[in-house]
Design goal:
Elements: H1 8-28, H2 58-62, H3 89-97, E1 101-105, H4 111-122, E2 128-133, H5 139-143, H6 160-171, E3 177-181, H7 184-193, E4 198-203, H8 209-220, E5 223-231, H9 237-249, E6 254-257, E7 260-264
Length: about 270
């Protein structure tokens, strides 16, 4: 009688979905799991590896090695929780501009970047989305101990960047989303030196007046001639005031769409503002 030998790797591979469920439940209820699982090769299943970036892409000009290469996907459960990440203004703006580059300032776990990438793919648009964030959390995140703002501290240092990376890979967009982990000020200097121009800039970073104003002013100059600047969190008083003041300073109308606001760099075309 022939005996069947099951290797340890096979057992680990079989248990991997269970581990992901346990990890997700733990994060959902605010617990941190101490389980460590050695990553197991995908063995041909899952999303295909991303294609080599175009030589002219921001990623190719920033990195000698693809930041997603060799990322330990088994170590981080996908978690795309966010705020206002699927607002209809994204699709309206992308179809109006048909951008080849989008800059997102403030990415958190990547929900809005993944949503924009989904829209671009659905409409056959080749677009690189550059995600600028420190992934260290805002003042609200740091001052809150609630699960909603869980920064996944490890030895006192936030691990949200790795959750973002895992989300991008799990969503199948590692080929078109480029992380730029830095302050919005430093990232602006980098992108400006590289000569990057974006059809859409999405600002969803700090909520304090001076920070919002600085981000709007800096990234406005990285917009293409007919580009769109989209902002989030208009319900915050400081954000709304900064958005109004900035729009007035550049002589452009401000469109408000619930939590989002839009400022057109070129000719204005209403997207149903209210």
């Amino acid at each position: 009688m022939q005996r069947t030998v099951i290797s340890i790797d096979t057992i680990k591979w079989a248990l991997r979905p269970l581990y992901r469920v346990v990890q997700w439940v733990g994060h959902a209820f605010g617990y941190r799991l101490s389980v460590t699982v050695t990553p197991v090769p995908r063995r041909g299943w899952g999303s295909p590896p991303p294609a080599a970036p175009d030589a002219g892409s921001v990623r190719a000009r920033l990195y000698g090695r693809d930041p997603f290469e060799g990322f330990p996907t088994d170590a981080y459960a996908a978690d795309l929780r966010g705020w206002h990440s699927t607002h209809p203004i994204f699709e309206q703006a992308i179809l109006a501009v048909r951008p080849t580059t989008i800059i997102e300032v403030g990415s958190w776990k990547g929900a809005s970047a993944v949503h924009m990438a989904t829209i671009c793919r659905r409409h056959g648009l080749g677009c690189e989305i550059v995600c600028v964030d420190t992934w260290l959390g805002s003042s609200e995140h740091l001052l809150s101990r609630g699960d909603e703002f869980d920064l996944r501290f490890r030895h006192g240092y936030p691990q949200i960047y790795y959750v973002f990376m895992a989300n991008v890979i799990a969503s199948g967009f590692a080929g078109c989303i480029c992380p730029l982990p830095n302050t919005s000020e430093n990232a602006h200097h980098v992108l400006k030196q590289l000569g990057v121009q974006a059809g859409i800039v999405y600002v969803d970073a700090a909520h304090h007046y001076a920070s919002v104003w600085n981000d709007l002013q800096a990234y406005w100059e990285l917009l293409t001639e007919n580009g769109l600047l989209i902002g989030d969190d208009y319900e915050w008083d400081d954000v709304a005031r900064a958005a109004r003041d900035f729009a007035e300073s550049v002589g452009r109308p401000l469109e408000v769409h619930g939590s989002k606001y839009v400022i057109h760099r070129g000719a204005s075309a209403s997207h149903g503002a209210r």
